[in-house]
Amino acid sequence: MFWKKTAAASAVAMMSATLPQIALAQEVGLDERINQAIAPISNVIAGTMFYSVPIAGTAFPLIVGWLVVAATIFTLYFGFVQFRRFGHAIALVKGDYSHPEDAGEVSHFQALATALSGTVGLGNIAGVAVAVSIGGPGATFWMILAGLLGMASKFTECTLGVKYRNEYEDGRVSGGPMYYLSKGLAEKGKPGLGKVLAVVFSICCIGGAVGGGNMFQANQAFQQVVNVTGGENSFLAGSGWLFGLVMAIIVGVVIIGGIKSIAKVTEKIVPIMAVIYVTAGMIIILSNITMVGDAFAQIFVGAFTGAGVAGGVIGALIQGFKRAAFSNEAGIGSAAIAHAAVRTKEPVTEGYVALLEPFIDTVVICTMTALVITISGELNSGLTGVELTSAAFASAFTWFPLILALAVVLFAFSTMLSWSYYGLKSWTYLVGEGKGKEIIFKLFFCLCVIVGASMSLGPVIDFSDSMIFAMAIPNIIGLYFLMPVVRGEVKQYWAKIESGEIKKVK
Amino acid sequence: MTDQPILVGYDGTDAAQRAVEFAGKRATAEGCAIHLVYVLEWSPYSFLSTQELEERHQRRTEELSRAEETLKPALDALNKLKIPVTSEVRYGHSGELICKIAEDKGACQIIVGRKGGSTLSARLLGSLPLTLVQASPVPVTVVP
Description:
The structure holds 2 protein chains of 2 kinds. By secondary structure, chain A is an all-alpha fold.
């Protein structure tokens, strides 16, 4: 869902291109001061987080390797769980194993849908465009591969999220990496390490929530709105603070005011937007069905020859891996927070359901975007990011950029709501629960929406992006320690299925 | 005396109250039992926010106890008439569930009230009485 440094850089470039000079002159004071204050710290953190080693002449960020290696290890350790249990995952989502007595509780489908609404977004629309514009069509192949591997990471973290969640007396549940890191590692005789990892994770998660899950989203949504309302001549150009204020008020009304109706409306529209997006993509692909074979040929040939791509095969591979990791968040730990609320006696069932998430997000939606871009022939137009996707879809439907702008704003909004919750959970894990403490975080979160929309805070965005990926460090260390626990869960679950203790109800 | 109960859809509204009164008379006349069904509309495929996910179990417990309380006056009233009465609260699609329970319980008929609205939405989307009339496995009485 985040399209990272290139995106941040292009956002800054776009900003300076679209904003009238007068507006820039007015804002430059505060902007610059904040930038100057934060840049030294953020540069160090971003530099460390995205520390890259040159591979075949291309900089390879180690953090991407960290995520892909982990995904590969989980895939092997669980014996290709993402392929063997794919059918079972579908059966669980359909409710084939849900007892009618449990109706009214959170279903597998609902947990999956909510977690998906947090990840499907800019990454699927813009991130893919960045990947194929830099890495060529071949990047798509590596993106799909990374998405398939990432399914095993999601499986591992979401199983643990349910297993080690807290269930309070009043019936509420809280789960996520901070709980499985502290409780799980304590069981393994490492309470100290667990506590440290949990605290580090929580701090990074708050940073990620405020940054990538908030400021970055607000910033990109505003850019897209300015673009469709006339670019430089837009009546909104230069009024980012106004857009941010409106957005912040709406977010505040939902998360502080507890007005469910707005959240409800968004959560109804977001899936519809996703369906419209996928349908439009499918129509374009089907009406050019003769070109699909050629597009796939380009994807495969590009993946192994790297023709015309800076860095060749490795260049395509890096782009593909990067965008997949950035889009589906497998190994980051965020999804485990949302998935923990499902009502199930068997944690592993939620793991199976969660492995569908990278599949839908990366293997289906991202691949579709890549195909449309490849088929449209816009790849050599010199565009990138949202603009490339927008142009590719516009080649078939001229009105599509407008829909896309609406989708970007709504995806940004739903992503903000999801991350406000992830951040809040980490915040309360650190400072304890309580109305006052929660309000402080929520107010701060709303303030960041305005800041994110009105300023071109490159360093701040870099900083918060690195925080999101920093979450993967404590999370995956913990996952390595806790893999055997998940394997134990898998064993006892299938024993129950074989003995008939757990059986289909439909 | 028949062991096939009359199934009554109940949700505490005036319309449901009228249905219970009518069902009481029928049950006394035919000497059969009454089974009250309170359906809380629910779809496992609806979308919930993360906050709602967290609170779902708590809310469900509250909703169930509220439904039981709503049922109580109706149960008391029927008990006073010496009619054997049972009840259940369920989550799901009201039309589908009532039909299914009617089959499971071997009910002789279904009695529901109607709100009396003829609004556009009721016409377009249908209402519980209409659904039951279309889909019920046993006779349906709609009490105005």
